[in-house]
Specification:
Chain lengths: 310, 439
């Protein structure tokens, strides 16, 4: 549904998108994960025909975004990062306005508006001016406006920024529901948990470049990340324990960090029985132990050297 | 698509009570305050005192009698005939608001392109003196119009020119009308030729008389009961002078606000959403232009309707003229600020610049003070402001009673400015990369 090849877009001296390539299949939820300024919105803007690319190529639904922008626009829906609503108008008027811009009229338009209002749980508020809506209601309507013409692909540009956890859960459920009906979604976010739980595949983007691509497990495999078993021991025991653990099978490294023993291994849970037995044999008591599974946060830290929410 | 865009903007405007008040009620209220301050609240009868007017010259009774009669009947003027020295003194002392110096030679009035009527104005009474001048201009046009009609119907070859042998010979000689009559009935070819010549001269005299009768009487612009005289003459209602200029002035603000909506849509995020909709390349711009035009039209309609109903202002007699001028003016002003909207970075910058531009153009273009009252340099500059043409067009209709056909040249200018500015806006839009340039 989406094919991006060596895409480049610069603003002055700043290269916002730098040789970016990825593809999104039909019915997929593809996440572009990256911090603010990584190039996510610029990528969506190029794909949505709002900005011309400096180099490279992009196709959406088989149409080249540069050569045939009109055909692309008819097949896509865009939910901008900021709320893009006419606050003076009602929810129904907002939907009807954009529906008409896509050629919907009469009973078809009315039915589509009613369907989307129902989907967003806004039927009761359909005729109220949007300016009186809560943040969550506005966000839901914001998404519905991108869907009014039943697009094949929906670009969602950080649609949950600035809303509470409950509203976010509701929106993510909404997106899953639409995806279950066959909608392809390109979802940008800098929230790790959203990308981790919502997206089928994730592209990690930083400084306009694609740093990693795949599903969660693939990403973790790609960087060779391991479990970390962190153990609190008496200070004098930490160094000898680290030296001993480093020689165990399946342990890639063992070292002292912030006064604790950290053991890097393929399977932390499998290591625990041996660890307990070795410590008991050495007469050491286990004060505190934790097993840290690799996640996108650690993945991202490893790839970019900085936390995502910076 | 344009219909959807315009409907959307109208709905947004209508939902915004503040915008409705600013667009429709504020201009009306401020104009009312100004009009009432000038003593023009409509009670039916004119509320302006008779304007002291000095008349200089010694016209033939053919002109002077109907002129005196017209001035006396109008109630608008308090005329006094005097010589030029006295007229000068009266005007300088403010005892006459203006002096009208009639030409010594009546023929100059009819045939010269440079009309030899002088108007001396009292600078302390600009408005009243301007009324005198405007009425005179109108009267002169009628006289000259009558002469043009006469010349078309009776070419100048009907006249015996200087040095030409008397074509009548002894035809008109005689001691009694009966003898002349008998000779005129003579069927001979010589007499027939002379008779035809005589008939042409008599026709000329009759036409000349008619021209003066109809033109000079046109000075009777308002009668004692406040009813408009035959034809349309200048009204004495101050709103006739104030309201069109103020209407155009406020319309400039409304047009700037409508064009600035591009910035509001960008800041509110809706512009990005509109730009990904399958719209034509310039639909967004033309949609904003159409909305601004309709908005301006509504503003003018409300203002003029209120002016008529509340303040008894004169809207002219030609039903087409005012709507035509209003459409042309709205179209022109809708285009005026679109280029600025595209060249400015945000709404604040746009607001600051458009306010400055509006105030400057209003001053120079004659929204506050008639351009005719300005120094020549400013008068010349005023003609380069778009609002000048709108002001003149409304003034032609409301003050001078001109019809749709008369204002067509000015309307054409207004539409021309509208088209040119819209083309500039589209060119800027395209030069800045079309939709990408709006983001």
């Amino acid at each position: 549904m989406i094919r991006v090849r060596n895409l480049v877009k610069s603003f002055g001296d700043v290269r916002a998108v730098d040789d970016l390539s990825f593809a999104v299949g039909p019915g997929e939820i593809f996440g572009l994960l990256g911090p603010n300024g990584a190039g996510k919105t610029t990528t969506i803007s190029v794909l949505a025909t709002l900005l011309p690319a400096d180099a490279g190529a992009a196709e959406v639904c088989g149409h080249d975004v540069a050569a045939d922008p009109g055909a692309v626009r008819r097949r896509i829906g865009v939910v901008p990062q900021e709320l893009a609503l006419y606050e003076e108008l009602s929810a129904e008027q907002n939907l009807a306005t954009f529906g008409r811009l896509y050629g919907l009229e009469g009973a078809r338009l009315k039915a589509r508006c009613a369907e989307l209002l129902e989907l967003a749980d806004l039927t009761e508020h359909a005729r109220r001016p949007v300016k009186g809506f809560s943040g969550g209601m506005k966000r839901r309507l914001n998404i519905m406006l991108g869907l009014v013409h039943a697009p094949d692909i929906l670009f969602l540009d950080e649609p949950t920024v600035g809303i509470d956890a409950q509203a976010r859960t509701r929106i993510l459920d909404l997106i899953r529901g639409m995806n279950a009906r066959g909608l392809t979604v390109l979802y940008t976010t800098h929230y790790l948990e959203e990308a981790e739980h919502l997206c089928d595949r994730i592209g990690v983007i930083d400084h306009g470049r694609l740093a990693a691509l795949g599903d969660k497990e693939e990403l973790i495999r790609q960087i060779g990340e391991h479990d970390v078993v962190r153990v609190q021991l008496p200070p004098a025991a930490v160094a000898p324990a680290a030296a001993a653990a480093a020689a165990w099978p399946d342990v890639s490294a063992a070292d002292l960090r912030r006064g604790k023993l950290e053991i890097h291994c393929r399977d932390g849970a499998a290591l625990l029985p041996r660890l307990q037995a070795e410590l008991a044999a050495a007469g050491l008591s286990l004060d505190q132990l934790e097993v840290i599974r690799p996640n996108l946060e650690s993945l991202y830290l490893k790839i970019t050297g900085r936390a995502l929410r910076e | 698509m344009l219909r959807v865009l315009v409907t959307k903007d109208i709905r947004r405007w209508w939902s915004d009570r503040q915008a409705v008040v600013v667009t429709l009620l504020l201009p009306l209220m401020l104009t009312a305050v100004l009009g009432i301050s000038f003593g023009g609240f409509g009670g039916g009868a004119p509320e302006i005192e008779a304007i002291p007017l000095a008349l200089v010259g010694d016209p033939p009774s053919l002109l002077r009698d109907p002129l005196d009669r017209a001035l006396a009947e109008s109630g608008l003027f308090a005329p006094v005939w005097c010589d030029s020295a006295e007229a000068d003194r009266l005007v300088r002392k403010g005892e006459a608001r203006a002096a009208v110096v009639l030409p010594a030679d009546l023929q100059d009035l009819l045939s010269s392109e440079r009309v030899a009527i002088g108007v001396w104005k009292d600078p302390g009474s600009v408005l009243q003196a301007d009324i005198v001048e405007q009425i005179l201009r109108r009267g002169l046009l009628r006289v000259q119009g009558g002469e043009a009609v006469y010349l078309a119907a009776w070419p100048a070859d009907g006249f015996p020119s200087a040095g030409e042998p008397d074509p009548f010979g002894d035809l008109l000689e005689g001691d009694s009308l009966a003898a002349i009559w008998r000779r005129l009935r003579d069927r001979s070819p010589e007499v027939a030729a002379a008779r035809a010549k005589l008939e042409a001269i008599l026709d000329h005299q009759a036409a000349l008389h008619d021209a003066f009768e109809t033109s000079a009487v046109a000075l009777t612009v308002v009668d004692r009961t406040g009813q408009e005289a035959k034809g349309v003459g200048p009204s004495t209602n101050m709103f006739d002078y104030i309201l069109p200029g103020m209407g155009v002035f406020f319309l400039m603000f409304a047009a700037a606000a409508a064009a600035g909506d591009l910035h509001r849509e960008r800041a509110g995020g809706t512009l990005r959403r509109l730009l990904v909709a399958p719209l034509g390349n310039s639909d967004l711009l033309v949609g904003k232009w159409l909305f601004a035009m309709l908005n301006g039209l509504l503003q003018l309609a409300v203002l003029f309707a209120a002016g008529k109903l509340l303040f008894r202002m004169n809207l002219g007699t030609d039903l087409l003229a005012l709507p035509l001028a209003a459409i042309a003016t709205s179209a022109m002003l809708a285009s005026l600020f679109l280029p600025l909207a595209l060249l400015t970075a945000n709404e604040k910058q746009m607001g600051t610049i458009s306010t400055g531009v509006t105030l400057f153009m209003a001053l120079v273009g004659g929204n506050f003070i008639s351009v005719d009252q300005m120094p020549p340099a400013l008068q010349a500059a005023g003609r380069f402001t778009p609002n000048y043409w709108a002001n003149r067009t409304f003034s032609d209709i409301v003050v001078h009673g001109r019809g749709a056909a008369d204002i067509l040249p000015r309307v054409a200018v207004l539409f021309g400015i509208a088209a040119a500015l819209l083309a500039v806006a589209v060119a800027i839009y395209r030069r800045r990369g079309g939709k990408a340039g709006l983001l």
